[in-house]
C-alpha cells in the first residue's frame, strides 16, 4: 500500500472528513512531511471508492460549494489494520536488528 493511501485511510479511521480535513489530518499525522495536493487527494479518493475502501457519507453546500464527506468502509478498516500490522512487524524486526527493541540484540 502506498504511503499516501495509508495516511488517507488513517485519517478516515478517526471519523468522516471532507477533502480539506483529510489533507490537514494527513499533514498532521506525517508531521508535515506529506502534504497532499487537491488533485492527488481526489484521484486517490476516487480510486479508494472504486476499490470499496471508502464511501461518501454525505454532501453539503458551504459557501455555494459542494463539500463531500468521506468515511472508511469496513473493508477499508480491515485493509488498514492489516497494513498497519505488516508495517509494525517490519519495524519491529528492523529495531531488533539494530539492537533498539526491548530484548533486541545488536547485529
UniProtKB/TrEMBL annotation:
Biological classification of the source? Bacteria, Bacillati, Actinomycetota, Actinomycetes, Streptosporangiales
Keywords for the protein's UniProt record, in alphabetical order: Plasmid
Protein name, please? Answer: PadR family transcriptional regulator
Q: List, for all copies, the residue spans of the domain called Transcription regulator PadR N-terminal.
A: 8-81
Specify the species. Actinomadura luzonensis
| Annotated signal sequence range | none
State the source organism's domain of life. Bacteria
